[in-house]
Structures are given as structure tokens and as C-alpha cells.
Amino acid sequence: MRRKDDPSDLIARVRRGEHAAAARALTLVVDEDPAADELSREFFKSAGAAQKIGVCGPPGAGKSTLTGRLIGLYRKRGLKVGILAVDPSSPITGGAFLGDRLRVMEHATDPGVFIRSLASRGMVGGLTHTIFGAIHVLEALGCGKIIVETVGTGQDEVDIASVADTVVYVTTPAMGDEIQAMKAGAMEVGDVFVVNKADLAGRDKAVADLRSALGLGRASAAPAGHHGSQARLTAASVEPRESSWEPPVCATAAISGEGIEELGKILDAHLERLSSTGEGRERLKRQHSAELRFWIERRVVQRALDRVTEKSLEDLLAHKTDPATLGREIFRS
Amino acid sequence: MRRKDDPSDLIARVRRGEHAAAARALTLVVDEDPAADELSREFFKSAGAAQKIGVCGPPGAGKSTLTGRLIGLYRKRGLKVGILAVDPSSPITGGAFLGDRLRVMEHATDPGVFIRSLASRGMVGGLTHTIFGAIHVLEALGCGKIIVETVGTGQDEVDIASVADTVVYVTTPAMGDEIQAMKAGAMEVGDVFVVNKADLAGRDKAVADLRSALGLGRASAAPAGHHGSQARLTAASVEPRESSWEPPVCATAAISGEGIEELGKILDAHLERLSSTGEGRERLKRQHSAELRFWIERRVVQRALDRVTEKSLEDLLAHKTDPATLGREIFRS
Question: Sheet holding A166-171: strands in order across?
């Protein structure tokens, strides 16, 4: 920690909304700087302040362009928006095409938008435990919406579902085969499904295929034009049931902005539902539980492993001890 | 633990080579029966006794048929062979075709062969930490060779490379595209590569493609006929260098048995090399280190998480505490 990183000063500056302070705090937290403990404890006091929206799906689905559109939507409402991108193919992290990058980065100079790529800091595509601390920094900064963009390969240390309040799974009509082959787990994780890059030709089939793959009944598909002009690309709508949320399948063309207003309404409806049913509180509890679990795994296990000496490994090789006995000794000391 | 499972009796019976006792001990160890601790400690004394051969690769590559052939090869030498199958598509675990299953299971009544499917015991395709304990049971039983058959998807909790002394990666000529798309990690893990189901038509190209994908020079390819008739299907041979092992690429037709003798020689050469260079000792140390790590993660973290009360989660929600503070408190108590 640099001399200028006085913790209480940094915390105060983040709470005042200073982006430079948030950027520095994020670096300390994500790098697991030993001195970041005090910061993490303080920032945790803001935990739960934002709606955390996970945007996941295969590379090339247009997650970043969609994220850019959602930023625009929330900025129009005057909300401060935070983006954490852990997708190495994301334009935010330097991947993808220059055009995409420009479309997202146009928000980078907006003082109401805080964008941070985490892909180069130990999160190569997948989520790791430091995502929790990063989120709390942005919550302390005053972000009402935090978008976590990730590939979500199922190989992540941390599951997006244990991080986000609302998980948006993004795919495209061209990815039909991929959807069929998709693991059940990936499908179960989504609260909202988006068929992006949906043009008139492929849209209905793509939405129907995805609904079918999700095992959703067709009965709940909204009638054409039900939601007015914004619903033109939307085949299914939000129809929360008494006891369960049937994931809406929403068609968008993020590049032109079509379907984004509708997606925004769906995300609002999901937040409302999280709040009214108590499910939001349960999810927050699960998130805290996961954060605690990773804290324990990381810190305690690491400290234990630091005590594994070359001699103790030699003792194992010589069968003078065994893993269980050695493990217990390490923890007693 | 049942009444009849007196630990010292069970241990003695396993050491005498009783399969029924080994089967019972394996169940206790893999189920992590609390009373299995004593067994694990005892069986660890046999750690390192066997050459552990990992057979991995995509489903349909013929891993089980190849495993069956290796069993036959080692049985001819009079060695006791243990097989741990964690591949749900393996005929051993009930998947694949009846013909394949019969080919492997023909060894099941051989008192010199111990076969155990672990796929239904918490290892659904991937390796988990209990594999270490299972291996030590088979080592105590007197197995000189232990074959661990796994899909090796890269999503496993435990990497085959931290379990096996020698990793055999199996593929087929038809899986060319798959090889191209294969992750570098999967390629790096193999000590020996097998192009199985190699017939005259596709064999040379398949071996060349694989060598190319592996970044291996063509200079070391053995001249045709160099190894006599068994080498007919073998394009490359074992050529250990002074300081590094260039993974041999071996062509086999496991269903007819062609190339198996050659593969056996390659596996012997790798074992010899592990021994002569000290690399075997280093690998064993890494295996023990991984086993210790998983013991610590599993037992200690689990015990810590057992102490996480509903009240402590409520305290997190109310920001009365934070994960780091709570984590420390749990460990102090």
C-alpha cells in the first residue's frame, strides 16, 4: 500500500464518489494487498446496496454491446452504473473489435459510469473470489446497478449465480447448436435469457428454440404487439407466477438498441420480484455465505499451506507421517 | 462403519490381498466415513508402491478397451492390477456398449485384477480428492499397476497430473478437430499420447496431426519397422532426451490389440525415466502435497463452515460483521 493510501482517507473519498479513489481501492482489494483488509471491512457495510446484474454467455454473443446499452438505459434514469468485466474477449478488457470497444468505452468518460476490467488481475475469463470485494467497492461508490460481464464457462471458481442478484444469459440465433449442447447447469443459472443479434429472419425460431431448450411452455409467450413497439423483438414476456419465476426469453438487437427498453423492464420486474418475495434477501444471504466461504478457503487454507515445509513433504515420502496427521498438526500449531 | 469393519482386521485382510476387504475399505474411504481415518492413515504407508497410470481423453476414444488391453499385458507379467474408473461413459461404470463392457469385465473375475467404478460415488466424470485414498487402498492390496480412467475435462476438482505418475492421453483419428481445439492445458498434461482406433488409412496422418498439434518435431519419428512388427502402428517412439521427455505419440487399435505391446514398452520406459531422473520422486511429492492440500481444504474448511450459523448470516446481512471478521472469529473458536 502506498503512503498516500491512508485507508480512512481512501474510504471517505470512495464514499464521496471519487473514481480515482475507487480505482485505487479496487486494485488493492483485487490484488489482495494485506493492507486491504481494513478497506474490505469498511466497504462491506455497503453490501446489498446495488442490483448486481450478471451478464454471461458464450464469446461473440454481444454481451459487451448489450452491457453498453444497459449503461445508457440506466444513465437516462440518473443511476450511477458500475461495470466489472472479467471476460477476456470483452472489448472492455481489450478483446473483440475496435467498433465494439468504442461503443462501450464511450461511457468511460461519463462520471456516472465506473468501468473496470478484471481479466488481467487473476480473473482470466472466470470469476474468482475477489469479485465480492470489488462489488462492495462499487456499492460504496454509490452505484445503483452493477453489471458483471463474464463468459461463464462453468469452469469458474465462483459461480455467477452466487454473485449476481439477476443473471442474464445472452446467446444469438446463430448459436442454436450451442444451446442444444449447453449444460443443464448453465441453463438453470439464468433468470433472464436474451437472444441477441436477433433480426426479423431468425428471431422467432431462435426464441422458440431457446424456450424449448429451457423446457418452457409456449403458453406464456406474449401475443404479438402486446407490449407495443418495444415488444416487436420480444416473443415472451415477464409472467411471474405465484410460486416461481419462469425465465423470460427476450430478443434484442443490441447494436441498434432494439429490445433494450423491454429488457430493462424485465430486469426491473425481476428486482421487484426479488424484493416482494423475500428471494432477494435469500440471494444476498447466499452471496454473503459464498464470500465467507471463499474468505475461509483462501486465507486459512493458504496460511496452512504456507506452513507445509519441504521437510514435512519428505516425511510424507518416507511414510513417517500421513496427510491427515500432518494436516491436523499444521492446524494445531 | 459396520460392526464387522474392525479397522485393524480390515487393514490386515487388505494387506493379505482380500478383494472383499479392499472393496469395503474403498467404500469407507471414498464415502469419507469418519471411521475411515484410521484406515487412510494405515493405507498411506503403502503410498508410492504402484505405478499409477492415468488414462484420459474424450468420450468415445476407446479408453476402456485400451485399459482392458493394458490389464491383459500386465497380467501376463504376473502383476496385480487395480483399475479406478471415474468416467461415467466407461463400460466399467455402466456406460458405453455391452461389447465394450464385456471386454473389460472379462478381467473382473481374475483374482489378480481389482476393478472399481467410482463414478457413482461423488465422482461424476471428474476426479475428486477421495481418489488419493482409493489409490492407497489398492497399493496396500498389492497392485503394482493402478490405472485411473477419467474423461479429464479440465473441470475436475483434481487434475489427473497430480494423481498419476504417467498420464496417457487417448484420442482417435476421427477426433482431429477436437485435437486442434483442445486446450493447451490438456495437451501439456500427457506424458504419452495414443491415437487409438488407428487403421491403415488414417493412422499416419492422425499421428502426424497430433505431433504437430503437440508442437513436436518430426525428426524424432521412428523409421518404419524400427521396432519390428509391433511398431507397425507406431509412428513415433520413446526418445528421452538428456533433460526432457518428448511425449511419444503411439498408434493403437485396442480392439484388435495392435500397438499395445509397444504402448506397454513406452509406459515402462517412462517409469524407468521417472526413477532414473528423480522426476518420479518429485511427482510423488507433488501428489502427496495435493493430497494434503485437499485434506486441509475439505476437512478444515468444512468444519469451519459447519460453524456458520443462521444468526451469523443474519449478522452479515445487517452489516453487524463482515466476512473477514466472522471468518477470523470462527477460526479462533
Answer: A113-117, A81-85, A145-150, A51-56, A166-171, A192-195, A249-251
The alpha-helical segments, DSSP class H, found in chain B are 7-15, 19-30, 36-43, 63-76, 98-105, 130-141, 176-181, 184-189, 203-213, 260-277, 279-295, 302-306, 310-317, 323-332
Find out whether B116 and B87 touch, Cβ atoms under 8 Å.
no
A296 touching chain B per CB within 8 A: yes
| Cβ contact A143:A52 at 8 Å | no
CA–CA separation, A178 vs B166, rounded Å? Answer: 34
Give me chain B's average pLDDT, please: 80
Look at B44 and A322 and tell me if their CB atoms are within 8 Å. yes
For the B48-283 domain, the top CATH level (class) is alpha beta
CB-CB: which of B291, B305, B314 is closest to A323? B291
**ipTM of model over 0.90:** no
- Which of B199, B123, B193 lies closest to B163, judged by CA? B123
Contact present, B208 and B95 (Cβ < 8 Å): no
List Cα–Cα distances, B184 to B160, B179, B188, B190, B213, in angstroms: 15, 10, 6, 11, 9
**Those residues with Cβ within 8 angstroms of residue B140's Cβ, 6 or more apart along the chain or in another chain:** B11, B14, B15, B22, B42, B43, B45, B46, B49
Distance from CA of B73 to the nearest CA of A (A): 29
Domain boundaries, chain A: 49-277, 292-332
Name A228's bridge partners. none
A37's grid cell: 483488509
Task: Kindly state the helix (H) or strand (E) to which residue A274 belongs, with its residue range.
Answer: helix A260-277
Superfamily designation of domain A49-277 = P-loop containing nucleotide triphosphate hydrolases (3.40.50.300)
Cα nearest neighbour of A308 on chain B: B289
Q: Which B positions 120-159 lie with beta carbon below 8 A of chain A? A: 132, 154-155
Per-residue pLDDT of A106-151, as tens digits, reads 777 788 999 888 864 444 456 778 899 999 999 999 999 999 988 7
